[in-house]
Prior knowledge:
By secondary structure, the chain is mainly alpha-helical. Helix content is about 65%, strand content about 0%.
Amino acid sequence: MMATNHPPEPSDLPKAAGPGRPKDLGKRAAILDVAKRLFSQHGFDGVSMDQIAADAGVSKLTVYSHFGDKDSLFSAAIRAKCEEQLPTTLFLAGLEGDLRQQLTVIARAFFALAASEEAIGMQRMMMMPGTGDDHVRELFWQAGPQQVKDTFAEFLRARVARGELEVPDIARASSQFFCLIKGEMHMQMLCGMCAGTPSSSEVECHIEATVDLFLRAYGTGRSPRE
Length: 226
């Protein structure tokens, strides 16, 4: 008797790459790493999607598949850089802990981000006339400084709810904190007046004094258990 040929089971058929198929996270990370480096070195207009694809070892189609367009990739690169040195968990973790200590940790991380070579280079380019346009500057602001300020504002709201801070204007206080943390040191670095980054002791003294000032303005003196 001849064997009957049965149709293949559904599980034996090759899987179609439908629109919901997960993208390669390794390629996405490689694209972001290259984008962070190139945008900080050459600005928005000085970098092409072809160049990013070539340096990341992927096709341009792959870049567009992950990020859609150049604006989205630029914003993602700025957010990734911020998250790398100032992760969102830094603002959310340890709400049961000491307020001064957590403010100090946030301040250290933010200063390290703002003083990094990539951030200094990007900000210098953003300030140069004829570099980019208002649209690019808006992308940078929303993906970087504004995102950080909004996240810190949520942290402040949580501490106000616990009775540890009295902050009439959360958005203003968030902006004040980061402006104070940058301080004169950061402006000197932007102007090229520092041969290198300030010493760790100088940075630490600056951060501690700034946190003290912020707490004198908005602190209630209550401990978390009171």
